[in-house]
Amino acid sequence: MTMIDSFASLIRAAREQREPQRLLFVFARPVLPDDHDAAQAERFRAGQGGALQPLMCVDREPEELSSLEALAAEAPDPDQDWQVVLVAAISGQNGRAPSDDDATHGLNTMIKTIHAGGDLSGFVAFDRKGQPLRFE
Residue ranges of the domains in the chain? Predict the structure, then answer.
């Protein structure tokens, strides 16, 4: 099992898979929900808690990727205030890469999970510097 300890190791691991992969990226930022209480607001100001707000999403084959910085620079507004990128991988079958429809479905599922405040443990997450994050 490959340890994902950087964005580069994620790309390397995806390239090493037996079946072709497609990586799905949702760039997001933390926000304080409208229905927050005082304790939640205090935690948020301390850099903890809150909810994630998806800002943009994209899919790429591992061979199309060089770095997180290069990927983020492709955005229509590269200065957008994203603070976390969530990543999922989908695998092809029988040597065929996942389709555009597969990628769209996967990205929609990721966004729905984020909006619902669902379990993010199935995603790999990185900060703007490409350092891995863990949600608790």
Answer: 7-133
3-state secondary structure 13-68: HHHHCCCCEEEEEEEEEEECCCCCCHHHHHHHHCCCCCEEEEEEEEEECHHHCCCH
- The model scores a pTM over 0.70: yes
pLDDT at 54: 94
Region for residue 80 given its phi and psi (left: phi exceeds 0; alpha: psi -120 to 50; beta: otherwise): beta
At 75, give phi and psi (nearest 5°).
-65, 150
The two structure tokens encoding residue 64: 């199309």
Query: Quick check: 134 and 118 in contact, CB under 8 A?
Result: no
pLDDT at residue 110 in the model: 97
Where do we find the tokens 């998806």? Answer: 54
Express each pLDDT in 17-47 by its tens digit: 999 999 999 999 999 988 888 998 898 888 8
